[in-house]
Amino acid sequence: MARMPTTPWPATGLEPAADWQVLVDGLPCPVQRMPVALLTGAETEGAVEVAVRCSGGATEAVIRPQRHGIVVRAEDGWLRFRAPAAAQLEVEIPGQPVLTILLDPPERDLPDRADPRVRWYGAGVHDVGRLELSAGETLYLAAGCVLRGSLRATGADGLTIRGRGIIDGRGLPPHSGALIVLERSCDVRVEGVIAIGTPSWTLVLGACERVAVERFRCIGWVVTSDGIDVVGCRQVRIRDCYLRCNDDCVVVKATGAWCQDVDDVVVESCVLHNDQAGNAMEIGFETRCERISNIVFRDIDVVGAHGEGGVFTIHAGDRALIERVRYEDIRVEHFYDKFIDFRILHSRYSKDVERGRIHDVVLSGIRAIADRYNCLSLCGGHDAQHGIDGVRFEDVQLGGVRMRDADMLNLYAKHASGIVFA
Asked: What tens digit of pLDDT does each residue of 304-313 get?
């Protein structure tokens, strides 16, 4: 059963796509237009019937992630399909921009608007400039809210950012800085909000501990529009997010003011869409710390890696030892250039004189499309002392074929040992 959010999606502040119609269980959902996509959504309880109609008509569509197995019916000028509960979908219609549909579960346990520790922004457009947040606060963006500006928090232990509203960075100069920066903070939670038009990195976690990011969604289009940057952090959980970025979707690194060790980061049950720049799941390039360890990517749908980056990427550009990295149960619907790119290198982003190492990486239960364009996979150390040791491929399949050796994967290796196919 579908229902609109308590307050509908914004009628002002974003550009409506009047030539599109979307119904969820018969309820109209306003469609908003952005340079790279269309966006709409609703709250739902259980599976729902979705109908889509665009100008010029359509007779077919692909619904991603394809693991849902959604079948589209063309009826009377509408495309109809049944969507599972809490799905985050892309509808691809030939000749049309991608339509992103966010189906959210109903919100529970709303914060108390009268609580002095709660900053509540209701429906409408709010120009906030640079909004500074403090320890113990809850920033709540209600459905229908468009918050124009950027967010900053330093030493904000116990901070929560939540709601169904939109953080809009389109008015900020391109490459002028990240949209949301949370640094040196513990026990932080980000949940449910949508970020669009970021001028650079979208959500930056810098030197934070015990962070939970759940159902955070972003659509960015400038180069450097990373989705989530985990920089010098420990104990981070990123779950159930939708990230469409023209750079890295999720990246783990140590750089800038946050050059400290990274440990215990889990990214799971997310949908990633990487456009022309960057990579889908990245560690690096900046690795200016002693150790980056215990990093897990699990149950991920990569609906597209469309540019010249890669899907599974580790770029050890500085001195860190990168170890105990796990990629588990990941589905890849598109990649254009590199499937796997693990390298130790001196890059344009490097600052350290000393190079690092990569040790103990496992890819298991990977299902990817067939390699149509003879794409490369790389495992490259820097020299004999700064190499890659221990990369294990367990049930890695391209086009339904299990990869059993380097030739099948089109894998090139240098200063790399312990590469095993199982």
From this structure: 999 989 999 9
Residue with structure tokens 């229908």? 144
Q: What is the pLDDT of residue 390?
A: 98
Distance CA 398, CA 379 (A): 18
Kindly list the distances between the CA atom of residue 10 and the CA atoms of 16, 32, 54, 151, 172, in Å, as whole numbers in the listed order: 9, 9, 20, 20, 20
* pTM, rounded to two decimals: 0.97
Torsion sign, CA atoms 264, 412, 287, 358: positive
Strands 203-206 and 228-231: parallel
Domain ranges of the chain: 2-104, 118-421
The pLDDT score that the predictor gives to residue 7 is 46
The token duo for 405 is: 């050796």
Fold of 118-421: Pectate Lyase C-like (2.160.20)
Amino acid at 219: I
Rounded to the nearest integer, the mean pLDDT of the chain is: 95
Instruction: Classify burial at 251, counting beta carbons within 10 Å of its beta carbon; exposed 0-12, middle 13-18, buried 19 or more.
Output: buried
Whether 207 and 231 have beta carbons less than 8 Å apart is answered as yes
* Amino acid letter, 325: V
The CATH superfamily label for domain 2-104 reads: Dextranase, N-terminal (2.60.350.10)
The confidence band for 57, taking pLDDT boundaries of 50, 70 and 90, is confident
8: pLDDT confidence band, cut at 50, 70 and 90? low
